[in-house]
């Protein structure tokens, strides 16, 4: 899929795909699920003051963005930067470019943040890949592409494209300014010279924690980076920061500015978390019934570890209270 702006209006499918991570329908305002998070900043330059006003933006106008970008942001419904954007954008947009490692959940505007940084650095006169975004799934890659395309719709000559295999374009090179895809496919396309990497200057890794939970994706991301120019700006986002993500991020994006959420802000408001220790697998079902007996809710989702076990659980729940359990 390749899209060029502003010669044609952004397709409906792209607009729909852009309704993710805080962007809203044109004219309807932002749909950010803003949390009152304390964003903690650790600068790569240890002598710099993270509380300096230069490292915070209360409005998009403060960021010296192009008129086309400001128009795209407004069209997406953003009125002012979210908490994450407020801290991340000034650091992302600094020159010379600096790496970033950031903790941010879906719905906080992170996709818009790295998309804005990418679009502000693209030279549209050079028709070649200049930014590569890696996501753990094709579905997420398409959503990210929708955000980039929607935000950049008023940048004349901009081309964006999904780095996803297309049987109708076998052997065709991917020459758009911004490419979004999955690690394995991107690695294969670079190896086969379908993507020329010499002009790529920004690499974004989204949902790093999900990447590392899937076998081989972290290693594939590392291989992709090794195929790119050494002086690129590397940006890594992750919803959670377990030790394995921290260790990986520090190697993947060295000497980076680091943004993290205060510990008490890691859970989105309105969601309660708890766990129950169960000695035997056979006790899980009875415990689940007791748990639901204490709660009042219209609907819920139950995740199971073993693929086929959901059918047995669904059957039992139907027999108890005629629940509707469309297993997948």
TrEMBL record:
Q: Does the keyword tRNA processing apply?
A: no
User: Which terms are listed as keywords in the entry?
Assistant: ATP-binding, Helicase, Hydrolase, mRNA transport, Nuclear pore complex, Nucleotide-binding, Nucleus, Protein transport, RNA-binding, Translocation, Transport
Q: Which SUPFAM superfamilies match?
A: P-loop containing nucleoside triphosphate hydrolases
EC number, UniProt record: 3.6.4.13
Q: Where in the cell is it found?
A: Nucleus membrane; Nucleus, Nuclear pore complex
Reactions accelerated catalytically: ATP + H2O = ADP + phosphate + H(+)
Q: Region (Disordered): which ranges?
A: 1-31
Question: What Pfam families is this protein classified in?
Answer: DEAD
A Gene Ontology BP annotation from the UniProt entry: mRNA transport
Q: Which SMART domains match?
A: DEXDc (SM00487)
Q: Tell me the ranges covered by the Helicase ATP-binding domain, including all copies.
A: 91-259
Q: Which residues form the DEAD-box RNA helicase Q domain?
A: 58-86
Q: Offer an example of a GO molecular function term for this protein.
A: RNA strand annealing activity
Q: Provide GO CC annotations from the record.
A: cytosol; nuclear membrane; nuclear pore; ribosome
User: Motif Q motif in this chain: where?
Assistant: 58-86
Q: How does it sit in the membrane?
A: Peripheral membrane protein
Query: Subunit notes for this chain?
Result: Associates with the nuclear pore complex.
Q: What does this protein do?
A: ATP-dependent RNA helicase associated with the nuclear pore complex and essential for mRNA export from the nucleus. May participate in a terminal step of mRNA export through the removal of proteins that accompany mRNA through the nucleopore complex. May also be involved in early transcription.
**Similarity comment text for this entry:** Belongs to the DEAD box helicase family. DDX19/DBP5 subfamily.
Protein name according to UniProt: RNA helicase
Per the UniProt record, the lineage of the source organism begins with: Eukaryota, Fungi, Dikarya, Ascomycota, Pezizomycotina
């Amino acid at each position: 899929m390749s899209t060029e702006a502003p010669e044609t209006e952004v397709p409906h499918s792209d607009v729909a795909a852009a309704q993710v991570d805080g962007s809203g329908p044109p004219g309807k305002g932002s749909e950010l699920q803003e949390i009152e998070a304390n964003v903690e900043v650790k600068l790569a330059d240890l002598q710099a003051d993270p509380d300096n006003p230069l490292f915070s933006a209360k409005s998009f106008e403060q960021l010296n963005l192009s008129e086309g970008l400001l128009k795209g942001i407004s069209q997406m419904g953003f009125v002012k930067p979210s908490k994450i954007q407020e801290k991340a954008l000034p650091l992302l947009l600094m020159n010379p470019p600096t790496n970033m490692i950031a903790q941010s959940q879906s719905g906080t505007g992170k996709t818009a943040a790295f998309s804005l940084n990418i679009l502000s650095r693209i030279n549209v006169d050079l028709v070649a890949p200049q930014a590569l975004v890696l996501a753990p799934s094709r579905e997420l890659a398409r959503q990210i592409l929708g955000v980039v395309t929607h935000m950049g719709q008023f940048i004349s000559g901009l081309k964006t494209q999904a780095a996803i295999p297309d049987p109708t374009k076998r052997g065709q090179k991917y020459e758009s300014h911004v490419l979004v895809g999955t690690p394995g496919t991107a690695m294969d396309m670079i190896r086969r010279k379908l993507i020329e990497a010499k002009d790529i200057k920004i690499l974004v890794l989204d949902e790093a924690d999900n990447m590392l939970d899937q076998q081989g994706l972290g290693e594939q991301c590392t291989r992709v980076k090794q195929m790119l120019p050494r002086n690129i700006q590397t940006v890594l986002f992750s919803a959670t920061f377990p030790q394995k993500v921290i260790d990986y991020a520090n190697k993947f994006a060295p000497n980076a500015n680091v943004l993290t959420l205060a510990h008490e802000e890691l859970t989105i408001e309105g969601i309660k978390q708890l766990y129950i220790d169960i000695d035997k697998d056979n006790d899980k079902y009875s415990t689940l019934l007791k748990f639901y007996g204490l709660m009042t809710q219209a609907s819920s989702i139950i995740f199971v570890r073993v693929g086929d076990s959901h059918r047995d659980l669904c059957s039992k729940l139907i027999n108890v209270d005629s629940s509707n359990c469309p297993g997948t």
